[in-house]
């Protein structure tokens, strides 16, 4: 039986809007122990902000906590729909070196699927491992995993 993303995606997504600022996103990430926040207008997915975005485009550029989301948002993002197979989702993650995929329906955010969802639920564990290995960078024969807590 083919498993679909809808069977394992997280649907209780923590989101923010373009009216939020960098500080508010950092607090959301801290309070919910996440490193990824979808930015929505109503339910429509506009983009995402990761903890890396906050550092690289925000704080490392000496922007203050009151800096607008528009300064750190990533809008060129990959998405999938809930009917995507788990195998295809793992392949997309590996091919594009991404750890989380927003799940959308008619442009509206309906969930998030992550590499952790693939591995923790023991669904296509090999594909999840392959995706994580592809995302990890190889340095001098050693594989260094870059994880976000």
From TrEMBL:
Q: Which PROSITE patterns match?
A: CBS (PS51371)
Q: Is-annotated flag, keyword Repeat? A: no
Read off the InterPro entries from this record: CBS_dom, CBS_dom_sf, Diverse_CBS-Domain
Report the domain of life of the source organism. Answer: Bacteria
Alphabetical UniProt keywords: CBS domain
Q: Where is the CBS domain?
A: 9-65, 73-132
| SUPFAM superfamilies per UniProt | CBS-domain pair
> What SMART domains would the database entry show?
CBS
Q: PANTHER family per the record?
A: CBS DOMAIN-CONTAINING PROTEIN (PTHR43080:SF2), CBS DOMAIN-CONTAINING PROTEIN CBSX3, MITOCHONDRIAL (PTHR43080)
Protein name, entry field = CBS domain-containing protein
